[in-house]
UniProtKB/TrEMBL annotation:
Identification of the protein by name: Activator of basal transcription 1
Cellular component terms (Gene Ontology): nucleolus
Compositionally biased spans, kind Basic residues: 1-13
One Gene Ontology molecular-function label: RNA binding
Residue spans of biased composition, Acidic residues class: 64-73
Ranges of compositional bias, category Basic and acidic residues: 19-37, 251-261
Residue ranges, annotated region (Disordered): 1-77, 251-280
GO biological process: endonucleolytic cleavage in 5'-ETS of tricistronic rRNA transcript (SSU-rRNA, 5.8S rRNA, LSU-rRNA); endonucleolytic cleavage in ITS1 to separate SSU-rRNA from 5.8S rRNA and LSU-rRNA from tricistronic rRNA transcript (SSU-rRNA, 5.8S rRNA, LSU-rRNA); endonucleolytic cleavage to generate mature 5'-end of SSU-rRNA from (SSU-rRNA, 5.8S rRNA, LSU-rRNA); small-subunit processome assembly
Length: 289
């Protein structure tokens, strides 16, 4: 029995010593292996948390939905494929809706955005109505007229083909329509995109606003100058009345304006030689026969 107990004690002591040695000389406790374990821990850890947006600011869930969506179209790619046709003349009676329907007949639904420039005369009567000469006195709306416009198509090939086939062709309308007898005048603009038109319109709008501001400031200056002159005139008139009531003298200042003589009235006096020459010429004409 004593021998068995001694063997058990020896085994327990050897196991405890081996465990202590492993803990003492483990790579994690040694400073030399600290960097290695830190790098492994970093690799094991996720680079970013779940649902955290990427560099572009798009969340992974949204990105997966966009990639899975078959109907999604890249706007830059769509703009690159599009083409713009310029219409120098808009037939009378045509507006955005009418022109869209007309272009869809030729392009099979490839029409995008449309911008038409109204004439100045129609801009003035946008909200007004013209009374019709009848007994009831009903009012007839004024229709806007347009002078030019731009039409965007989703495909360049369609825009080129339409501009080539439609240019110089008579508008297909009824005989009583206002556009009867007019012709389409259009041209495809190569390399021109809708964003270029928007930038040009924005620039022109800013220029017109700046010009309007300058005109307003000039008008204010003229009005202020006129008001000051009127006040000065009223003050001088009151001062003149006071002086005249007291029996004083008031001298009115008059500007001395030197008037130029007309050039037509100025004639150089003739010399004796010129006068004699004129007399000789006159005598020759009389006694020429």
């Amino acid at each position: 029995m004593t021998l068995r107990k001694d063997k058990r004690k020896r085994r327990r002591s050897s196991v405890s010593e081996s465990q202590h040695a492993d803990e003492k000389f483990s790579p994690q406790s040694d400073d030399r292996f600290s960097k290695v374990f830190d790098e492994d821990d970093d690799e094991a850890a996720p680079s970013r948390q779940e649902n955290e947006p990427d560099v572009a600011g798009v969340k992974p869930e949204v990105k997966e939905e966009i990639e899975d969506d078959e109907d999604f179209v890249d706007p830059e790619r769509k703009q690159h494929k599009s083409g713009v046709v310029y219409f120098s003349v808009i037939p009378p009676g045509f507006n955005v809706a009418k022109l869209t329907d007309e272009m869809n007949m030729y392009s099979k639904g490839c029409v995008g955005r449309i911008y038409l420039v109204p004439t100045r005369a129609s801009e003035k009567f946008k909200t007004r109505t013209a009374p019709e000469n009848n007994d009831r006195g009903s009012k007839k709306k004024r229709h806007l007229t347009y002078k030019e416009g731009w039409v965007e198509f989703s495909r360049k090939s369609v825009a080129k083909r339409l501009a080539k086939s439609l240019n110089g062709v008579e508008v297909q309308v009824k005989a009583k329509h206002p556009a009867s007898g007019t012709m389409w005048l259009c041209k495809y603009l190569p390399g021109f995109k809708w964003i270029h038109l928007m930038e040009q319109m924005d620039y022109e709008r800013k220029v017109s606003m700046q010009r309007m501001k300058v005109e307003i400031t000039q008008a204010k200056k003229v009005a202020e100058h006129f008001a000051t002159q009127v006040e000065k005139g009223a003050h001088l008139r009151k001062l003149e009345e006071k002086v005249l009531k007291k029996g004083g003298l008031w001298e009115k200042h008059q500007r001395d304006i030197e008037q130029r003589k007309s050039r037509a009235g100025k004639k150089k006096p003739k010399t004796d030689r010129q006068a004699a020459k004129d007399e000789d010429d006159l005598m020759k004409l009389i006694y020429a026969d």
